[in-house]
Design brief:
mainly alpha, two-stranded parallel sheet, 14 helices, 2 strands
Length: about 425
């Protein structure tokens, strides 16, 4: 009985549990946020909110996910070497520089962005900058917590962010005073407040804000990390954009059906995010400690787990994908089983490419990861060589690109592990 309790305690104390729980709450909250805005403002009135949400999330991940990754691996490696992590000025300087570039772009092209992208809602333009700044705060907080292995607080940050998004949008919808700007401001306040609450009462685990040592100052990784993040986002989100760009007049509904199919077929990617947040700092700590055997074992477990998750997801979509699509979105959104399976397969390949990239990032091989994603983006075009319908061609292109990135990353990982000898 005691052994059973210990086993249960070990499983439930896994960092994947709080992170996964937070991600579930956060994901559900985003669906609720968009649904409440749509019901309150109607199809036309909520369109700028949906576009705003898409822009902020896409650029937030592309620009500030590297902030989380760098902080997580830097602090985890420092703890493995002796328990003292130094953040330094580089993350702050990068964040300020990235926001300054965004501000310059908005200053020069904000009017066009408001007219063309945000449906004439010029008031949303500068809220984009505020929302991206809030995203920077959230990603920096998660990187700090992941690097300290404070995954309970990491999950709290995600869950509270989601709860605040739901509560804020529910209040606006209930009072009938909701506007596009009002809903957008919810996306500014929620990440900041959630980050503050997640950090309250925190006891830093040997982390300082002083300048890093000469070893830590030897390189500033954000150029490569941003390249990795942006290229991976292009490969992940190219499908709907290609459909919208290449669809013939009268086929505008195809883009909507394809987006709906992506949300159904790529559900495993949602679960993979929890694994991703945990694996990078774990591998970075083993790399810093020179634990070659532990690093290889963790890599093997992460790759096999990711492959299993992708296979289960693809087979599940093959079995019940069309039924789930119609159940969630209605008969007008029905697509073929083949299309759903191809999208699910592209998601499985993307997860494998992502986990291999994490292995490279944990070893500081940032540019190799960027090159792999670049190869994947270039390989997208090969999928269009198969003569079939547009949606299937785009899905094949996504499979080809993600598979190419996965192979490229895997070759580099294999070479790195074979050459890496344990420290004497």
């Amino acid at each position: 009985m005691a052994d059973a309790r210990q086993t249960l305690r070990a499983r439930t104390s896994s960092p994947v549990v709080p992170v996964g729980g937070g991600l579930v709450a956060f994901g559900v909250a985003n669906f609720a946020f968009l649904a409440l805005a749509a019901r309150d403002l109607g199809p036309a009135g909520s369109a700028p909110v949906s576009v705003f949400w898409t822009v902020v999330n896409a650029f937030g991940i592309g620009l500030f996910m590297p902030l989380e990754q760098d902080l997580a691996r830097r602090l985890a490696a420092a703890r493995a070497r002796g328990g003292t992590g130094r953040v330094g000025r580089a993350p702050l300087l990068y964040t300020l520089g990235a926001l300054a570039v965004v501000a310059l772009v908005l200053l020069l092209a904000g009017g066009m962005l408001g007219r063309v992208v945000l449906d004439g809602q010029s008031g949303l333009v500068w809220v984009v900058l505020a929302a991206l700044a809030a995203q920077a705060v959230a990603y920096a907080t998660r990187g700090l917590l992941a690097g300290e292995a404070s995954f309970g607080r990491y999950g709290v940050q995600l869950a509270v962010d989601g709860a605040l998004r739901t509560a804020g949008s529910a209040v606006l919808a209930a009072t009938g005073n909701g506007t596009a700007v009002g809903y957008a401001l919810v996306l500014v306040a929620a990440p900041v407040l959630a980050s503050v609450l997640a950090l309250l009462g925190r006891r830093p685990r040997g982390v300082t804000t002083a300048e890093p040592s000469a070893e830590g100052q030897s390189r500033v990784p954000f150029g490569a990390l941003v390249s990795v993040s942006l290229l991976s986002q292009v490969l992940a989100n190219a499908g709907p954009m290609l459909i919208a760009w290449l669809a013939e007049p009268g086929d505008e509904a195809m883009a909507g059906r394809f987006v709906a199919a992506v949300t159904v077929a790529r559900i495993p990617l949602f679960a993979f995010a929890a694994v991703q947040a945990v694996v990078l700092p774990a591998l970075a700590a083993r790399a810093a400690a020179g634990d070659v055997a532990g690093f290889r074992a963790t890599t093997r477990l992460a790759v096999l787990g990711t492959a299993g998750l992708g296979a289960v997801g693809a087979l599940g979509v093959l079995a019940i994908g069309p039924f789930a699509q119609v159940l969630l979105y209605g008969q007008d959104f029905a697509v073929s089983r083949t299309l759903l399976f191809l999208i699910a397969a592209s998601g499985a390949f993307f997860m494998l490419a992502q986990v291999m990239a994490i292995v490279l990032l944990s070893r500081g091989d940032d540019w190799a990861a960027a090159v792999g994603w670049g190869v994947g983006v270039l390989a997208l075009g090969l999928g269009f060589l198969v003569p079939t319908g547009l949606a299937e061609q785009v899905a094949l292109a996504l499979c080809t690109g993600a598979a190419a990135a996965a192979v490229c990353h895997a070759v580099r990982v294999r070479t790195t592990l074979r050459r890496w000898e344990p420290a004497p």
